[in-house]
Prior knowledge:
Aspartate Aminotransferase, domain 1, Aspartate Aminotransferase, domain 2, seven-stranded mixed beta sheet, four-stranded mixed beta sheet, 14% strand, binds pyridoxal-5'-phosphate
Amino acid sequence: xxxxxxxxxxxxxxxxxxxxxxxxxxxxxxxxxxxxxxxxxxxxxxxxxxxxxxxxxxxxxxxxxxxxxxxxxxxxxxxxxxxxxxxxxxxxxxxxxxxxxxxxxxxxxxxxxxxxxxxxxxxxxxxxxxxxxxxxxxxxxxxxxxxxxxxxxxxxxxxxxxxxxxxxxxxxxxxxxxxxxxxxxxxxxxxxxxxxxxxxxxxxxxxxxxxxxxxxxxxxxxxxxxxxxxxxxxxxxxxxxxxxxxxxxxxxxxxxxxxxxxxxxxxxxxxxxxxxxxxxxxxxxxxxxxxxxxxxxxxxxxxxxxxxxxxxxxxxxxxxxxxxxxxxxxxxxxxxxxxxxxxxxxxxxxxxxxxxxxxxxxxxxxxxxxxxxxxxxxxxxxxxxxxxxxxxxxxxxxxxxxxxxxxxxxxxxxxxxxxxxxxxxxxxxxxxxxxxxxxxxxxxxxxxxxxxxxxxxxx
Length: 459
Ligand SMILES: Cc1ncc(COP(=O)(O)O)c(C=O)c1O
């Protein structure tokens, strides 16, 4: 006791206590750190998904929430869908028998309606049970088509600019994306159209080889709005046939085509039905993107592969949305050739919006690319470069810096198109911004006013 009393003076005791606490703290902290790093090591993304980053949508939705700009970035209407479509959902909601699981590969009433529609459009009888799969948005149909066909090392040709999920989906299947960019033809002085962006035929031909499993086509294209011509589709089809390649045709904007252009389904070209999976979306067809209902159709042997992926990941889609969509299709099936049919009236309704956007972008100093289809417009923003403080943002690509600066300082949001290119070709998208014009006239006018004010230096 006396030794303790002599050695451990109050000051010593304090120091020893502090040391012990520190030691204890550090040992607790270091074992906590070790545990954390063990957890991080063991539970990081599996190798197949390594390198995945939040997509442009995740980042830009947050940007819009943080800065509350006028949002012409994301592709959805800011006005209500057709009344008969929402009425169908109300009717379904009050039916007590439509709130339980439905058939996994597609709600019977919906696959019947889809078979009836596409049999007419494709010119062959489509089997609703074996040749159609309904999915959670076209997104899941793409996932099932890619995962259901692509093996490790298989090459998949992707035409740029492309809807951004194609690339990670191919990589998740351990496939190898091979990119080819649509490039503008020289059109001095003329207003650019999405049709001026073309494939280099020799370059495309050069990509096809023994390892090529599939090509992903998107017509009308997002973000460019290009509607592929019969000549272009025939060239692609001939290569698919020559090299025994699958065509995954994303046609979610099939009804959004402006006169005089025409949507051609590649599955209708000779010898293409047996090697094509065509994908559609209720979100785009009936302007109900929140319903997240899509479908794929094609020959039974190819569809079986998609059905297996769907069965073992999602199993079944939701019943009321599928029933309401079936009712909406049944209505349109009775008036397909009339101008009242929504499939015909939607592009008539959108055409003046497209014209208005082209005009106000041009007047502000952008160089818009007028789309032949879809509801997006890409525009070259670089003539306005001197009015933008690109250095205030840190992103690698200038279109990200431009769109972020515009969101924060000018209050108008667009999407950076370099997101729609593979890493090697991102530079091709850097000079552009993508705006969406399926918006109320008053909001398009507000966008025009914002840009006018910015141009005159008043904001
Ligand atoms: C080209 C393209 N494909 C697929 C999709 C996904 O459609 P959905 O919302 O039905 O999943 C979109 C959505 O914007 C798209 O633009």
